[in-house]
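Running log. JK asked me to keep both predictions on one page so they can be read side by side. First protein, sequence followed by its tokens:
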Amino acid sequence: MQIDRRALFATLGTAADRNAMPSEALADALEHHMIESLDAEGTKDELKVRLGTGVLFGGPLPDAPTELKKLEPMPEKPTLVDFFKYRFAPPTVRHVLQSATDAMKKGEREELILACLLHDVVLNLIKVDHGWWGAQMMEPYVSEKISWGIRYHQALRFYPDPSVGYEYPELYNKIFGKDYVPPPYIKQAYEYARNHKSYMDARMITVHDIYAFDPTMKVSIDPFIDIIGRHFKQPKEGLGYDNSPVAHMWRTLIFPDTPL
């Protein structure tokens, strides 16, 4: 929803008053303002989908189509590349390809390049806690370093690390607002990851993440085919049919229109 920041600030007093408020109070004020706005506008502009809905199911994403197009049938034994071709929405594909391209150009190791390629594709399925969902979705098929990095990149992206040149993205100020404070579980995940031996496996995903929002950049899956072949354990039965603990997640993407 659009936030009327002037209206919100008017409820908080002067700039000095706002600066003196703890983050929890600011977050509560923002929540109350959003609830009041929904009460005022809800009857005329009902949500058609939940904001956490995956992109393939109509979840909102910048430049995503407003109408769902008919999907191409998947091959009998779908591979990861098939999902890129037939199920991952263009905005998501463009973003992760740009991220992986940046990692490749800067000479990162292949596992990190693959982690950049995979870090956000779960957004096609669900947006809530996409780091955790994304890691779970990939765990049977990639190394622990890759899945660990995907899991914790979600929390780390909200916290700068000057040692690798990562600053808080200005894009997040536009999306969440300059007053945004991540919830406690995100902070806890950050603090855990920050002191973990694999910290850089997640941090470097965030580094390459911020260079991956150019709508004019031409990208392709082709440069990554060999890396996928070396580091992604493609099941012989096809993704979604291998009876892994996450096969149902891939099948959900194969059959998003099935009501069963």
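And the second, directly underneath as requested:
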Amino acid sequence: MAQVLKENPDNDRFWAIDKVILAYFTFTGILVVAWWSAVADAPAWLAWHIVAPALLIFEVKRPNRTSWLFRNWYGVVYVASSYKEMSVLIRAIRHGDSDRWLADLDFRFWHVNPTVWLERVQSPGFTEFLQFAYTLFIPAVLLVGFVLWWQRRYAEFQYYSFLIALGFLLSYVGYLMVPARGPRFLLNHLQHIPLRGLWLFQNMQLTLDRLESVAYDCFPSGHTELTILAWWSSRMISKHAFWAYLAYTPFLIFATVYLRYHYTVDVLAGAVLAWILLCATPAIYRELSKGALRIGRN
């Protein structure tokens, strides 16, 4: 297991996750200003880009009773807000999408459209099961962190928080570079059979649609990337957790295409990004955590 670094919650030094989030907020704040007239609710987003970093800096430089909890968990809110913002920025900055290009790449490789071909294995029960697996994505990713926190393994928790935050933020940059809505929109006219579940399928799908609004969040597949990161990191909890996540991860990845959310090239990109992060993040974390005490085991 890669070494992790023990962060001292009582000091006024920026942690690795702080540096990454502050850099990302600076980057997207510049985008809001540069495309001011095109960004919906630009004043509100700019205010958030001022208030959120200011609050983080205050909690770091003025340690108080709230600092420990805030510094360990604020990333959940900041990263979630960045996802909502990215859909706004993409509509302001990019005109057009990359769906046709991604679909063509899929077709050149498979000689079929994968979402259309998968109709031959479609069934209401299977659809219901895969939609349930897909909907559990965020809880599955967060669960590893919650268990590490509950076990009071704070160093491992902080490393995992950094890894997951970095994974999410890099996927958002990918959405900006290659905006796409997915095959369920572009290729809907080619589908012969609509997806149907048994009981909760439609409600789960509608709930996700409302949460995601009009998102261009296909490339890379964040579901693939972050689930792989969670699966590999679950080793820090136990062997049983590792094998449970190993059983879950292939179904989640298959669901991204079967449910028509993603092209297979998105899945490949997400898997490659996950592999790069698993290889590079330990060194990045050590570099951004200069002066921390090393703990962990090989």
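Observation for JK regarding the second prediction: The chain has one domain: 4-295.
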